[in-house]
């Protein structure tokens, strides 16, 4: 960040009015410098100061959105090279590629990938439509792609075909990916006319940099940098060098999201495309284009993406409370587990699969797994009993059977002392055994 806390403080009104949520203007300046507050939170900042601070505190990579308004996707906004330094901001987006002839089949397959993991919807984000020469068919394929509800990338370097496709789906806010040093002026005009993001490629990083600078002078604001498909080695090197130039050197002409077309880097090789997609989740693909995606590819890729694009300073947690599953009421059995999101969704998923009504109680366990929370003293007989009393669970639930995780069976005796009148039942050590266990418990 270009300005320090004291520099930001000098531009504030220095009234200590507290309307920004901070006790003093100095504290506000320090928060803005740390990136934990926004300059717009001060209602008394002058326009001149806002303009100066806005430019100085803007992230080294521009952020913007693509796709239809009701399902828009975020790109850019990155501030660090390594996740452990702070956090990555905009998750890698996955696109499946097709030309006008194969678009229907690709969209049908892409629609099959749609599931939830730890509270996040996992699906193919974008249809990447490659122009193969038939303009009329391309426009129809563009319409169908936009109608799917997914974002669309129009990968076309023919100005006429690009114009017709953009005219047909302009409300879907597609990405026009086809600018290069030769057609830069025409494509810059198209991007401005239709208000879309523009993908740009070149034979070398130097040529790419010069083309981006020219596009910026032409007034194009939202740019996506194609890292190229000459080879896997060059694509990887370009992605890293572009990101380093933006983050470390403050090169604003490389401060844009990137696109990596692994479908062209490893055509026909689904295994290699999956491996490359995982590589570019880490280094530094904003959009990764694949030939297609099956569940066998989606499960590891989405899992990796979710792990990488979470804030390492904040544990993944769910809200504390009582979660009635399968229509549970006051007479249903109770179970308790930690607030670590992954544990919650695994356990709740198995309970839902059993069909047995269960009140799943989630106390504050620090966002740790069961054994980690127990060893850290965050998930103890005392803390569980205290939460049940604080949340007034006893007045809301008549059933006094409480299931505890099998891995902390040692808590049974102490819990019985802390919760008189409750029957503490040790459930299996693995969530996968819960379905059978609950059905047998219900039948008993």
Within CATH, the superfamily of the largest domain carries the name Dihydropteroate synthase-like
What is the general shape?
globular
Return Rg in Å: 26 Å
Total beta-strand segments: 17
Strand order of the largest sheet: 3-6-7-8-9-10-11-12
Q: Give me the number of helical elements.
A: 18
Number of structural units classed as domains: 3
| CATH uppermost class of the largest domain | Alpha Beta
> What profile does the largest beta sheet have?
8 strands, parallel, barrel
Jot down its keywords:
single chain, 444 residues, alpha/beta, 3-methyladenine DNA Glycosylase II, Chain A, domain 3, TIM Barrel, Rossmann fold, 8-stranded parallel β-barrel, 5-stranded mixed beta sheet
Description:
The protein is built from 18 helices and 17 strands. By secondary structure, the protein is an alpha/beta fold. It folds into three domains: 53 residues, 3-methyladenine DNA Glycosylase II, Chain A, domain 3 (Orthogonal Bundle), CATH 1.10.15.40; 246 residues, Dihydropteroate synthase-like (TIM Barrel, Alpha-Beta Barrel), CATH 3.20.20; 123 residues, 3-Layer(aba) Sandwich (Rossmann fold), CATH 3.40.50.11600. It starts with a helix and ends with a helix. The mean pLDDT is 92.
